[in-house]
């Protein structure tokens, strides 16, 4: 009976592992590929107006983004988890993503984060990474923003993510989150937050930019003190 139970358990473990790898590929690779696609489209549209030096610089940025995507792929394949390489590796992934999107799209994306992410569970990290990638992508793609400010704060009993842009904004009250053309979508970002017992609020008006505030509880961490932000 024990052997039969093990045989039944093994396919489930393999299924869970395949799902985990698929999620890692989606979270860590797709945002970089999105940035590359946007940059190639931009260069194609502006090619005749660019100098040879500008063309070369854009191609170098695309090459750098492709190299970053390749590194993230290798990290996923070899399962370089945050626990194995110190508490800041996930933060480095966030910084790498935002730096890549910034260079590829000519958008300023300052990032302020805590000294360590060790208090965040794997589920918190995945949710925050996905929400950040989607929100920044929307600010660039739909909002035509020239600056997107990303701030991550770990408090005593919660983690807060604020993403603000100076784009064209939209009527947040009338936006339907389930639209098929919305990519990962506002609805799914809210579902990610609520799945961890948190909230996601969107503040936006036409021509006034957009601000997204995510709050996720950290269960059993009420006694911890808030962490000091880097860079202010």
Automatic annotation (TrEMBL):
Residues 38-220 form the Histidine kinase domain. It is found in: Cell membrane; Cytoplasm. It is an enzyme of class 2 (transferase). It catalyses: ATP + protein L-histidine = ADP + protein N-phospho-L-histidine. Its cofactor is [4Fe-4S] cluster. Its main location: membrane. It comes from the Bacteria. Gene3D superfamilies: 1.20.5.1930, Histidine kinase-like ATPase, C-terminal domain. GO terms for cellular component: cytoplasm; plasma membrane. Its EC number is 2.7.13.3. This is Oxygen sensor histidine kinase NreB.
């Amino acid at each position: 009976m024990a052997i039969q139970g093990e045989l039944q358990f093994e396919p489930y473990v393999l299924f869970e592992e395949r799902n985990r790898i698929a999620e890692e590929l989606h979270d860590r690779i797709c945002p970089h590929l999105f940035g590359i696609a946007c940059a190639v489209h931009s260069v194609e549209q502006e090619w005749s107006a660019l100098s040879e030096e500008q063309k070369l610089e854009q191609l170098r940025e695309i090459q750098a983004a492709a190299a970053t995507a390749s590194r993230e792929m290798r990290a996923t394949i070899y399962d370089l988890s945050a626990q194995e390489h110190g508490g800041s590796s996930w933060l480095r992934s966030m910084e790498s993503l935002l730096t890549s999107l910034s260079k590829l799209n000519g958008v300023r994306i300052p990032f302020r984060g805590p000294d360590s992410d060790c208090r965040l569970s794997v589920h918190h990290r995945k949710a925050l990474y996905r929400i950040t990638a989607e929100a920044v992508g929307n600010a660039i793609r739909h909002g035509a923003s020239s600056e997107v400010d990303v701030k991550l704060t770990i408090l005593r009993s919660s983690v807060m993510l604020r993403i603000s842009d100076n784009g064209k904004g939209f009527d947040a009250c009338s936006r339907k989150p389930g639209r098929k053309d919305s990519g990962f979508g506002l609805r799914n970002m809210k579902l990610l937050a609520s799945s961890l017992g948190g909230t996601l609020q969107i503040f936006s008006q036409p021509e006034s930019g957009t601000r997204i505030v995510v709050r996720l509880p950290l269960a059993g961490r009420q006694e911890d003190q808030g962490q000091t932000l880097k860079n202010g």
